[in-house]
Amino acid sequence: MNQPSAKRNTIAEIAAKAGVSIPTVSRVLNNRPDVALETRKRVERVMEESGFIRSRVKNALRKESSCIIDMLIPDLTNLYSVEIVRGVEEVLEQTELRLALSVTRDSSQLEQRWLAKVMDGATDGAILVLTRSQTNDLDLLRRHNIPFVVVDHRGELGPEVPSVGATNWLGGRMATEHLLSLGHQRIAVISGDADLRCSRDRIAGYRAALEDAGIIVDPDLIRPGAFQQQTGYEQTCALLDLPQPPTAIFAGSDAQAMGVYSALSARGLSVPDAMSVIGFDDVPIAAMVTPALTTVRQPLVEMGRVATTMLLRLISEEPLDSTRVELTTTLVTRDSCAPLTHP
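Given the sequence above, the corresponding structure tokens read:
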């Protein structure tokens, strides 16, 4: 009954002692050419020193090799996650690897269950879209020689962690500057959780644009929350109840912007005549709503593509050009913003 588990431990031990991943050991055993000479020698030396018969270990590895890339995301209710998954799938379609998708729903218990499944080597690598700084989980993956790349990480990462993100500070600044160019000065911003790095960067870009324009930042116009539609709705209601409401709202995500639209509609206010609105992400629904949403485009699909390409290089034991890649955000102007016609 315990024999399969023993084989898994043996295979993982070989990879760990050689300082490589399990798929790399598999490629060595199958005489694949895509392994560096020094790496091949190191793996073969570990196997020889361990005293295992090559054919037996090779057969065990064939059973354990999953040809699976694991992907961990917060949820599938937000098109933000779906767009990143699209980019991952586009790259994997060109390989023999399959995608295994797991949803955490921000639950640490679900994250631990996922970790337990992959710790025995039942994955070739992982792509992680995390909402918090789960450094312990990342350290655990590293200790088990499981290659991974983090996408749009919202906490703090060390320079050694492979990751892909976007220029959030620049995006926040561009959004605010666009509204300033239309004559708006009382510009509100609805943020995500203040603990998230991307939230802080977008707010910092917003502040920088206002300060450069000589406008004093009003703390009442900076509203915290989450990157969800409900937050957009609730914070817009609070902004409209201020003695001096804003004339424009910069939402931290397109999902939040949908909540802004709903709150304005409930008050009988139209976009952009009564309120200019700008979002962040540029998910497909942004172009479909009425009026079409002006937003900061975060290249989510491309982020998924780049992360997957990086992971495939790590799996092949190839060096990365850089462990941190930041893709540029751009402003997409549509119909939800208009020049200020009243003070």
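The two ends are 77 Å apart (CA to CA). Try to locate this feature in the token string yourself.
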